[in-house]
Amino acid sequence: PALALPGVVRVLTACDVPGENHWNIFKDEEILPLDTVHYHGQPLALVIASSQKLAQDAARLVRVSYEDLPAVLSIRDAVEKASFFAETRQLVNGDVDAALAAADLVLEGESYCGAQEHFYLETMGAVAVPKGEDGEMDVFASTQNPTEAQMVVAEVLGVPASRVVCRVKRMGGGFGGKESRSVLIAAFAALGAHHTGKSVRIALDRDEDMQVSGQRHPFFGRWTVGVTKEGKILGLRMRVYSNGGFSHDLSVGVLERAVSHLDNCYRMAATDFVGRVCRTNTQSNTAFRSFGGCQGMFLSESMLCEVADRLGLPVERVREINLYQGGDVTPFSQKLDDWNVPRMWDQLKEKARWEERRHL
């Protein structure tokens, strides 16, 4: 039905990929799926037409027969069903069990932070221009990663990378959202140009972009913390889980950053941090500014708020007495030789007239 519309040139599926149909460093994601889709909104086929509106109208005429498969849609479901990617990241320092036994109070709890949409002003887009000689192709991509776009387009077309040139003039925003996921869009444009011999442009609408491109990883943490009655942290055991989506993408790197930021700026003498990436049937979540750092810090800050509440202390007091001091060593073995956070903390309290304002 799509091909019957005047102005529709081609409808491309996985069978039309001349080269490698799997991409990313783990090769666990298809350019176009051959027989199995993994999430609602996954691109199945490419409609090439003389205008964007015509292509969108034609795409709506395509009918697909699906067979329902079991789905994992949230972090909690994934943890319950042990749906994980293979990689585990762990940081262990000191004897957590002994620290918990010596604590005045031991608390257990959970913390959760949801996804975040990049919402860059310019959505994903690319233009591919065939050069007519030996499969040469110029790709103009809205991407933060022109090198990977060049390599993947070459693999998809089955040509050496030297025959593909990727150019980036401006992105209209990226924030990490166009580091890896933009590569798929560049490959789509290149496929269209390869099969038609003409320049092909792809520009996603906002709803298409949000369905396809992935977001900041949601994180879920379960923690056990031992503290003194003054609020000093003696030991912390935390298990953190991220929603990676259906493929690896950059999720392992994001997890590593989150695990190494669970201490935030606080000294914890005994720590046991373990992180896993959950495999779910959602878009593959991806890089976002801070790359897992803010999720790790958020989980710990949420824990500190609950500790302060249980001890009946102001949370800023709990934070203050646990701040790293110069010469301390982090759970990932970095010595803090040039450490100014305590001084900054005192300056901010003074300049903001904190003590005065909190009693108003």
Strand line-up of the largest beta sheet: 5-13-12-11-6
Mean pLDDT: 96
Largest sheet: 5 strands, mixed
| Overall radius of gyration | 25 Å
Number of strands: 13
N-to-C span: 69 Å
User: Helix/strand/pairing class, anyone?
Assistant: alpha+beta
Which of globular, elongated, flat, extended, rod-shaped describes the shape?
elongated
SS field, number of helical segments: 11
Taken as a percent bin, the fraction of beta residues is: 15-25%
- Please, what is the oligomeric state? single chain
Q: SSE string, helix = H, strand = E?
A: EEEEHHEHEEEHEHEHEEHEHHHH
Helix content: 25-40%
- Model regions low in confidence, pLDDT < 50 over at least 5 residues: none
Polypeptide structure, described:
The protein is of the alpha+beta class. The protein is 30% helix and 23% strand. It contains 11 helices and 13 strands. Strands 5-13-12-11-6 form a 5-stranded mixed sheet, sandwiched between helices. A 4-stranded mixed sheet has the order 9-8-7-10, with helices on one face. β12, α7 and β13 form a beta-alpha-beta unit. α7 packs parallel to α8. The radius of gyration is 25 Å and the shape is elongated. The chain starts with 7 loop residues before the first strand and ends with a helix. The mean pLDDT is 96.
What layout of secondary structure does this protein have?
Elements: E1 8-12, E2 22-23, E3 29-30, E4 46-49, H1 52-59, H2 75-81, E5 84-93, H3 96-102, E6 105-113, E7 125-130, E8 137-141, H4 146-157, E9 164-167, H5 181-196, E10 200-203, H6 206-212, E11 219-227, E12 233-245, H7 251-259, E13 270-279, H8 293-311, H9 315-321, H10 341-351, H11 354-358
Parallel strand pairs: 8-9, 12-13
Antiparallel strand pairs: 1-4, 2-3, 5-13, 6-11, 7-8, 7-10, 11-12
Helix pairs in contact: 4-5, 7-8, 8-9
